[in-house]
Amino acid sequence: MNPEQQRNWKQQTLDLVFQALAESRELSKYLVYKGARILALRLGTMHRASYDLDANLLEVFSRDFPTRQDQVARLETLIRQAITNFVETQSLVRFALENVKVVHRPRDVHPLGWNAFDVSIRLHDHAQEGTRGLPTITFDIAAPESLGATAIAPLKVGEMEVFAYTLERLAGEKLRAFLSSLPSYRTKVAKPGEAVRVKDIYDVGKILLVHPIEHLDFWATAGHEFRLACASRFIDCAGIGTFEEAFEVTQATYEADPTIPKDLSFAEAWNGIRNIIALWGRSDLVDFQYPLPEE
User: Fold this and answer.
1) Half-sphere exposure of 131 toward its Cβ, with a 13 Å CA cutoff?
2) pLDDT tens by residue, 123-150
3) Which of 164, 192, 276, 292 is least buried, going by the fewest C-beta atoms within 10 A?
4) Partners of residue 31 on adjacent β-strands
5) What's the pLDDT band for 93 if we cut at 50, 70, 90?
């Protein structure tokens, strides 16, 4: 497979894995889904390609399985059962599960221990017999976060329902995620450098097309979710200046990213961000500091 074929195969296979996980009632009790796939479903429109699956644990999981060893074992079992049951009950059995591995990330991967579990899945594709280089499906299941009353709602996936972030929470979480990739926050938590998360800027721009800034109730709720999301990760914000800390890098990265569709220019996307922060500023939602906890 060439790189483009690998990306297409991975995207299709992640759709299958998501449907399989959605059919597990027990997994749906413990996970809340988020990210680009959820955003596309919430918007009900075509969206940018996504090559991962994002989920957070809910607090109930830690109560039911208090030790890391039990948590890893239970997640592996539930994911393996969900995928096996799904692929074996299809009218045309194309895939077979080869392996599921769940690894708890060591605390030193993230300085405050927020990265919970890495999941890797290997599938055998009968339609690709003899093909070398089939990708491993990987995704992460992150630690629980503080959630507002309107952060989660049911979402239909295939014939089943899962818990997933609402559009309001997605808007707030994506702006929080963008701030988490800027230099000041990385310095604050001694986090290794990474690319600025410009895909989140594009995603918020797409939300604005459905909920323009005049939808004041929507954006007020999103602002409260943004603040809760920032508090969960001790992210500071002093208004638009915080977002524009690495403005030239953000613009250049956005315009060079081949995975961002060309239907929303950087100027349009960033103008939307400025409008949101200005609105939140009038409600005192974007001027806060959350000191790191003492050791």
Assistant:
1) 15
2) 999 988 877 778 899 888 988 888 999 9
3) 192
4) 57
5) confident
| Residue 288, beta-bridge partner list | 237
- d(C-alpha 36, C-alpha 50), whole Å: 6
Q: Is 250 helix (H, G, I), strand (E, B) or coil?
A: helix
Angle (CA) 14 16 19, round 5°: 110
Structure tokens at 63: 């109560």
- Position 47 confidence tier, pLDDT thresholds 50, 70, 90: low
pTM of the model: 0.90
Q: Which of 150, 155, 270 lies closest to 219, judged by CA?
A: 150
Amino acid at 118: D
- What structural domains and CATH numbers belong to the chain? 3-164 (3.10.450.620), 166-288 (no CATH)
Assigned token pair, 126: 């009968």
**Token couple for 29:** 């009790």
Chain center to CA of 256: 22
Query: What is the amino acid identity at position 29?
Result: K
Burial (CB count within 10 angstroms: exposed 0-12, middle 13-18, buried 19+), residue 154: exposed
> What would the two tokens of residue 137 be?
């499906």
Please spell the DSSP secondary structure of 52-74, one letter per residue: --EEEE-HHHHHHS-SHHHHHHH
- Give the pLDDT confidence score for residue 109 in this predicted structure: 46
Following CA atoms 14, 18, 20, 22 in sequence, which dihedral angle do they give, to the nearest 10 degrees? 180
Spatial distance between the Cα atoms of 274 and 269, rounded to a whole number of angstroms: 9
41 vs 46: CA distance, rounded Å: 9
d(CA 219, CA 279): 8
Q: Which residues lie closer than 8 Å to 206 by C-beta, 6 or more apart?
A: 39, 43, 45, 47, 264
